[in-house]
Design brief:
elongated, alpha/beta, 364 residues, 15 helices, single chain
């Protein structure tokens, strides 16, 4: 943090100030007549009745105790942002330690925004490079294991969060593979559930906070980077189609087979997760996608704070377009149509680059 030199300077200044005060007191004691009415009180306060060596030891020990109390309280104040309600929240400290690099070397801050398998695939590649990585993930998914847990426990979607946490963990870690394990016993209440989704849900119930559950899971997996939800609110994706239909739920919107006229979240205007907002403002590079246009990229951009932060950020903004259209979701849309939808949500002149697949389509 670059504070040692200034701490030493403060210490040196304190010592000089103390010596100056001591010299003033000695001068005053020797040259200023003390009224008889307060002479007794002064002698008691200055411990005149005690031997000089004992007085010196008492003053020294008293100063040492006061100094140790100050250091203790300062340490608590510095550590408090990383500890909540007694739960160790080391993710920020670990990120700083891992990415601070050699002195004088600036580590690029890369923020990836999206969801689904596209974002987790991107993170697996990014973590192999010397980057400070932050993933901002949609929490609007309502299908499969995630949807069942959302409806039963009224929490934001844990599925995409889980995928990104596992992607940033050690690939060979038994714990990361455990988090991706999916029960497949037909007829069982656990059938279709991912262990990681259950773990995050249980930790949310234990801590009383989805935010702490994500942070705790990141600590368990010892991930390289941060995974942040775009919002902590339990939002649902909805779409108005040009044929007059209104679809609700990400899983439904993803198979709409029609032209989307308006995409929105319910409840409207969810509050952005503040660490995600700050990460975007401080980024050197912002990557949107790859991922499903309407169900992975757009839900994040429908949160006002996310789009504002991207517009205000000095970072280069790159949109990674899907390699092909998705049946039922982007039928008939070409690459330019994908970009048009993103720009409608972000605003004009925000995207700097677009990565597009130019390989010839196979028969599949």
């Amino acid at each position: 943090m670059g504070i040692k030199r200034w701490a030493l300077l403060i210490l040196a200044g304190s010592v000089l100030t103390g010596v100056g005060i001591a010299m003033l007191l000695v001068y005053t004691y020797r040259n200023v007549a003390i009224p008889a009415s307060i002479d007794g009180a002064v002698r008691a306060v200055t411990l005149q009745a005690l031997p000089r060596d004992l007085r010196l030891a008492i003053v020294f020990l008293l100063g040492l105790i006061v100094m140790m109390i100050g250091i203790w309280q300062l340490s608590r104040a510095l550590v408090s942002p990383f500890v909540k309600d007694g739960n160790d929240n080391r993710d920020l400290a670990r990120i700083y330690t891992e990415h601070r690099g050699k002195q004088g070397v600036v580590i690029p801050e890369v923020v990836a925004v999206g969801g689904g398998t596209g974002l987790s695939s991107l993170l697996r590649g990014l973590k192999k490079h010397d980057l400070a990585i932050t993933a901002i993930v949609t929490v609007a998914d309502d299908g499969g294991s995630t949807g069942r847990l959302r409806s039963e426990f009224d929490i934001p979607a844990p599925g995409d969060i889980r995928n990104c946490l596992a992607a940033l963990a050690d690939d060979e870690s038994l714990v990361s593979r455990l988090f991706q394990y999916r029960f497949d016993q037909a007829g069982s209440q656990f059938d279709g559930h991912s262990f990681g989704n259950i773990f995050i849900t249980a930790l949310t119930q234990v801590t009383g906070s989805f935010e702490r559950a994500v942070t705790g899971t990141a600590s368990v997996l010892n991930i390289r980077g941060r995974v942040l939800p775009s919002t902590l609110e339990n939002v649902h994706l909805a779409a108005d189609l040009t044929d007059g239909r209104t679809l609700r739920g990400e899983s439904t919107v993803g198979h709409h087979h029609g032209e989307v006229e308006r995409l929105f979240l319910e409840p409207a205007s969810p509050k952005v997760y503040e660490p995600a907002f700050g990460a975007l403002l401080n980024a050197d590079l912002i990557v949107l996608g790859p991922g499903s246009l309407y169900t992975s990229i757009a839900p994040n951009l429908l949160i006002d704070g996310i789009t504002q932060a991207i517009r205000w950020s000095p970072a280069r903004v790159v949109y990674v377009c899907n390699v092909a259209t998705q049946p039922g979701e982007t039928d008939g849309l070409n690459a330019a149509d994908h970009v048009r939808v993103v720009e409608q949500l972000l605003g004009p002149n925000v995207l700097d680059d677009v990565v597009v697949n130019d390989n010839p389509a196979s028969e599949l």
